[in-house]
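@channel sequence for tomorrow's demo:
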Amino acid sequence: MRILGIESSCDETAAAIVEDGRTVLSNVIASQADEHKQYGGVVPELASRRHCENILPVVRQALADANMTLDEVDGIAVTYAPGLIGALLVGVSFAKGLAMMSGKPLIPVHHTEGHAAANYLVHPDLEPPYLGIIVSGGHTRIAEILDYTTFRTVGKTRDDAAGECFDKCARAMGFPYPGGVHVDKAAQRGDAKAFRLPKTKMDGNPYDFSFSGLKTYIVNLLHHTEQVGEHLNCDDLAAALQHDIAETITEKTIAAAKELGYTSIALSGGVSANSGVRNALERACQQNGFTLYMPPLALCGDNAAMIAAQGYYNYLAGITADESLNAMASKELRGEV
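C-alpha cells (generated this afternoon):
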C-alpha cells in the first residue's frame, strides 16, 4: 500500500510517498528557514502564505520522484494537529481536496505520532511494544508505544519543551534561527563544566519535564552579563545547556524503561538530531544493555515521510476522516490510553 503524506505544521512544506509504512519512495521538503531567519523565528502568517505557494509543486514533485500518478496512490495522510493553525489548515485543506477529487481515503495523523513513526522507515526490526522518547520544539514526551496506533504517556513537558528551551536560549546567545543546530556546534567547542545550571525537581510524576526554569535562568544570566558589561563564553554556556538537557532526558527515559520493563527505546523528534542527546542516550543504553533506535538526521525534523508511515498504520487500524476534518493547534495524542 502506497500512502501520500502531507506535512505543513510549521515552516516546512513537505510531501512524500511511503510504501507499507516502511519504504520511502520519495520525500520532498520545501524549507522556509532562510526566510524566517531574518525575524529570529517563524512568522506564522508568512509561513501560511509560503505553504499556499509551495504545496502543489511539492506534492507534484513527490509523485514524480516516486514515478507515480495520484491514481496509483492508495491513501492520503495529512498532519492535522498540533502546530501553527494557519499552516496546518493549508495542508489539511489541500489533502481534503485531493481525497474528495480522487476518491482516496483521507487519513489524519497527529504530528507527534508521526515523529515516532520516523524510526520505522530505517529500522525494519522495530515493532511495538517499546518505549518512545519524542523530543521536539513543542513536545517532550516519554510514551509507551503499545502498538502502532496506541500510546500511553509516561511523562511529558509541563511547560517549555526541550526544543523551545534550546531555541529561546540560542536566540538570547545571539545565534541565528534555527538556533538548536548552532547551540550544538558551539557545545562541541565549549566546556560543560564551566557553568553550573539549575535542575528542576518535579512534584508528582517523576517522568514529567520542565525546561522553563532553565530557559529563564540562562536568559536572565545573559541579560545581566550584558547590562554590567561583562563577557560570557557562549560556547561554554551552550555546552552546559546541552549537557543539562541531554542528561535530564536520558535519566528520565532510562529510569522509566527500567520501571516499566522495556529494553527497546526509540528516540525521535527534531531534538533527536542533537548530538548531545543522541550520545548521552546511546551511552546509557549501552551501559544498561538496552537497544536504542534513532532516525538519521534527515528524518529528525519535520517531514512528510514520517506522516505517510504513520498514516499507513492508522489506515490499517481504521482511522480515516471525511471532509469535516479540521486542523487543531493543540491536541493530545489520538491513540492515548
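heads up for whoever presents: The beta strands are 2-7, 12-19, 23-31, 75-81, 106-110, 130-135, 140-147, 150-156, 264-268, 291-293.
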